[in-house]
Amino acid sequence: MGCESSSVKPAFLLLLCFLLGTASAQLSSTFYSTSCPSALSTIKCGVSSAVSKEARMGASLLRLHFHDCFVNGCDASVLLDDTANFTGEKTAGPNNNSLRGFEVIDTIKSQLESACPGVVSCADLLTVAARDSVVALGGPSWTVPLGRRDSTTASLSAANSNIPAPTSSLSGLITNFSNKGFTAKEMVALSGSHTIGQARCTSFRNHLYNESNINATFATSLKANCPSSGGDNNLSALDTTSPTSFDNAYFKNLQIQKGLLHSDQELFNGGSTDAQVNTYSSNSATFMTDFANAMVKMGNLNLLTGSSGQIRKNCRKAN
Ligand code: HEM
Questions:
Q1: Which of 181, 190, 194, 241 is most enclosed, with most CB atoms within 10 A?
Q2: Which atom of ligand 1 is nearest to the CA of 203?
Q3: pLDDT at residue 12 greater than cutoff 80
């Protein structure tokens, strides 16, 4: 394999190389094997130590990667602090007072910089940390293609417009994910991320007080910690049965109207995705496989590779 073979016409090979070089994002699971052999183990250790201190951190790191990839691609733009030249994504509506885990990423990044200065991108770090978080909480593993590079800028407006809101309808969710190249089935699989982690009262209050497709006992128990006014930042588990286990309980909850967010319950509300929720509820292995495949796909959104972008030394600012 390769361009040195003499049995095929050079013009064809040039075309093949061009197609391979442009059609694929040029990622490789062995990208750091010689340049930073300890990269993957450093990230895995950093994630497991953070998750063992606080299980929720696994959820927070997974969400960071999602909010990175859905806003101009997986380029670690979500990690950039504001500068004189741009307002970053951290204060966008879906992120402000909500995204967390930045310090964990900083800690791991400084370990990577000590071991191999200027080699491992923040975007790859975030992608691998998301995978390791899922594994640390009992979910599936998958091979992460590597070689992403980091942006030098971020977009508050893109963060506000590209990240789906918890008030979204089913068709809104399907359109939002379709805009990023995902099928409705992949959207349902990725939503299974809400089998871990927490949401603030402000994110589900309207579903709790003004909607009828919520289990009455579940609603009563939530109201104790999420009053009709005030307590905006009070937290409840997205998966009421096993919030720190990456399992398929999220889908079982949806079947009995125990989705926390309006958008969660939309996936099982008499519409086109009910059947997929039933499948994932009754077949955990199918969910795990579909989730892993969809995560690889999400991690490949609009990448900077080759000589585009840079390898940030500090994930919070461009070099
Ligand atoms: C389908 C559309 C989605 C909507 C509308 C949505 C919305 C939300 C909201 C509102 C929260 C709670 C934020 C807060 O109250 O502070 C949340 C939490 C979370 N989301 Fe999503 N999300 C979606 C899809 C995803 C996807 C695709 C992933 C990952 C691949 C994900 C991972 C998470 C995780 C892990 C948490 C908990 C974070 C923590 O505890 O720190 N979400 N999401």
A1: 194
A2: 15
A3: no
Q: What are phi and psi of 254, to 5 degrees?
A: -60, -35
The pair of three-digit structure tokens given for residue 39, joined into one six-digit string = 């990269």
Tell me the CA–centroid distance for residue 314 and ligand 1, in Å. 26
Closest atom of ligand 1 relative to the 295 alpha carbon: 30
Confidence of residue 25 (pLDDT cuts 50, 70, 90): low
Residues 6+ apart with CB under 8 A from 300: 25, 27, 74, 145
Nearest CA to ligand 1 atom 8: 166
CB 190, CB 246: distance < 8 Å: no
pLDDT for the residue 19: 43
- Closest alpha carbon to 39 in 164, 144, 137: 144
**Span 140-156, pLDDT tens digits:** 999 999 999 999 999 99
Instruction: Name the phi and psi angles at 215, rounded to 5.
Output: -55, 130
Q: How many CB atoms lie within 10 A of CB 142?
A: 18
- What is the 10 CA–ligand 1 centroid distance (Å)? 50
More confident residue, 5 or 101: 101
Of the pLDDT bands very low, low, confident and very high (cuts 50, 70, 90), residue 26 is: confident
Other Cβ atoms closer than 10 A to 92: 24
Ligand 1 centre from 63 Cα, in Å?
6
Please indicate, yes or no, whether the overall pTM of this predicted structure exceeds 0.90. Answer: yes
